[in-house]
Design a protein that fits this description.
Layout lengths: L1 H33 L4 E9 L7 E7 L10 H11 L2 H21 L6 E5 L2 H4 L4 H11 L7 E6 H6 L1 H14 L2 E7 L6 H6 L4 E4 L1 H7 L3 H16 L3 E4 L5 H9 L4 E2 L10 H9 L5
Parallel strand pairs: 2-3, 3-4, 4-5, 5-6, 6-7, 7-8
Antiparallel strand pairs: 1-2, 1-8
Helix pairs in contact: 1-2, 3-5, 5-7, 9-10
Bound molecules: ligand C2E and calcium ion (3 copies).
Protein name: Bifunctional diguanylate cyclase/phosphodiesterase
């Protein structure tokens, strides 16, 4: 008897601890939102054909907190659960546009910067207008901003997502389908959504090195999508072998620690200016 009640109590303690942690993280997110303390890191993305870094992905970072470092894998789900992600994303977009403005003013041959959109964003009726406003304010042509959405975002509310995407695509915003191969991998998404790029998830890239069948499928999908005019990005490339595999598949762009990690704006600048080539 003692043992079983003991276990219940342990379980309860953990739950309480988890709720306390979630509450504390939520408070930190609110605070950072209020004083715009979030930092946006940029991960330059390598282009195989010329070794340049024409694009980057914007990734949110929390500065050091009283709880120590807190990473996106923890705070993004909490931000989504609490709805804070909506305002956080607009903050990211504004910071990205400001950075892009600077890059363009300094003459960068930039293709664009991508920003992650969570599903909650699509529940905002004014999403397309709001994004247009931010672009306008910083005088950024829409094609410089690419929005990343995952398959699960699309699956959760296909009609709503499609209509917002079409509205934004008409304005010239480009879309990337993120984490491809981890979710539903629904071919009809790629066929019917205005998607310019597909990002092959790192799990597929990694598996391909010791799984021939996976490698064959990744190569076939990459080539087929490429023929349909969809640009391919390999994610999570950490080794030369993985990079060689991606190149063998004809994949145009490679994102991974091998070439560049996510870094503060000032460090990313030379990559995106075209100064830092490998
Ligand atoms: P994601 O969108 O798939 O972003 C790529 C993640 O892979 C980033 O993790 C990046 O640091 C990591 N990564 C890049 N290259 C490599 C590599 O070679 N090896 C490995 N192991 N990892 C690599 P990060 O920055 O920790 O972000 C994690 C996730 O949090 C993101 O996954 C995204 O889903 C979410 N996230 C981050 N920033 C934002 C944001 O501003 N808005 C939204 N909605 N989600 C965000
Ligand atoms: Ca992403
Ligand atoms: Ca991804
Ligand atoms: Ca991911």
């Amino acid at each position: 008897k003692e043992g079983s009640t003991g276990r219940v109590v342990v379980c309860d303690d953990r739950m309480v601890a988890r709720m306390k942690r979630k509450h504390a993280v939520t408070e930190i997110l609110k605070e950072e939102l209020l004083n715009q303390g979030f930092e946006v890191y940029y991960q330059p993305i390598y282009r195989c054909k010329d070794g340049g870094f024409p694009v980057a992905e914007a990734l949110l970072r929390l500065p050091d907190t009283p709880l120590g470092p807190i990473y996106p894998d923890e705070f993004i789900p909490i931000a989504e659960e609490t709805g804070l992600i909506v305002q956080m994303t607009y903050l990211v977009l504004a910071k990205v546009c400001k950075f892009v403005r600077r890059l363009l003013d300094e003459g960068a041959k930039l293709e664009g910067v991508s920003v992650n959109l969570s599903v909650l964003q699509f529940m905002q009726r004014d999403l397309a207008d709001h994004i247009a406003e931010i672009l306008d304010y910083y005088q950024i042509p829409a094609r410089f901003i690419k929005l990343e959405i995952t398959e699960s975002v699309v699956a959760s509310n296909y009609e709503a997502v499609l209509s917002v995407m079409e509205k934004l695509a008409k304005k010239g915003v480009q879309f990337a389908l993120d984490d491809f191969g981890t979710g539903y991998s629904n071919l009809s998404y790629v066929m019917h959504l205005p998607v310019d790029m597909v990002k092959i998830d790192r799990s597929l890239i990694w598996s391909s090195l010791n799984n021939d069948r996976c490698a064959t499928l990744v190569e076939a999908v990459s080539r087929t999508f490429g023929q349909a005019g969809i640009r391919m990005i390999a994610e999570g490339v950490e080794t030369g072998e993985q990079a060689a595999f991606a190149q063998r598949c004809g994949i145009e762009l490679i994102q991974g620690f091998l070439y560049a990690k996510p870094m503060p704006q000032e460090e990313a600048l030379p990559y995106l200016m075209g100064v830092k080539e490998l």
